[in-house]
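Project outcomes to date are best conveyed with an example. Our students and postdoctoral researchers have been running inverse folding experiments weekly, and each run begins with a structure described purely in tokens. The record below, which covers 143 residues, was selected by the lab manager from last quarter's runs and is presented without edits.
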């Protein structure tokens, strides 16, 4: 003999199937690939957002020519980077160097002064997304 709650199981199963069917269809129509999920930068710093003003997100594509390098700099606000093309070597000074290749994503360091260089024969293209605030610079140049 079925109790009252077990008689409702088929109804609940049908409801759940109908409720989540659009999500399954959406997942098939719009597949996603997670690039990065982290709460720290490449140097292990906790990500902290500036509070100097209203939130401001800025996205850029940085291009580094073959044989070129950026000036030493740091980012006072979180910066997500995705390597679109090429291979960039980032010099973190005493913390060493790291190589990032096409298709790799990272949260760049906020406190460690660094610079990127392109030792390859083709251009390096990097999507950089700065998650700052009004009144906070995205990049601070260092000498």
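After processing, the design step wrote out the following sequence:
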């Amino acid at each position: 003999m079925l109790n009252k709650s077990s008689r409702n199981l088929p109804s609940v199963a049908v409801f759940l199937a109908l409720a989540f069917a659009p999500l399954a269809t959406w997942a098939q129509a719009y597949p996603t690939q997670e690039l990065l999920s982290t709460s720290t930068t490449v140097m292990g710093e906790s990500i902290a957002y500036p509070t100097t003003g209203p939130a401001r997100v800025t996205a850029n594509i940085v291009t580094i020519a073959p044989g070129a390098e950026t000036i030493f700099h740091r980012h006072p606000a979180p910066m997500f980077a995705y390597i679109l093309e090429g291979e960039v070597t980032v010099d973190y000074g005493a913390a060493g160097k790291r190589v990032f290749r096409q298709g790799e994503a990272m949260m760049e360091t906020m406190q460690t002064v660094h610079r990127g260089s392109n030792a390859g024969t083709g251009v390096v293209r990097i999507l950089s997304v700065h998650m700052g605030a009004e009144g906070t610079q995205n990049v601070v140049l260092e000498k």
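The chain is about 15% helix and 35% strand. The helical segments are 4-7, 9-29. The training component of this project remains on track.
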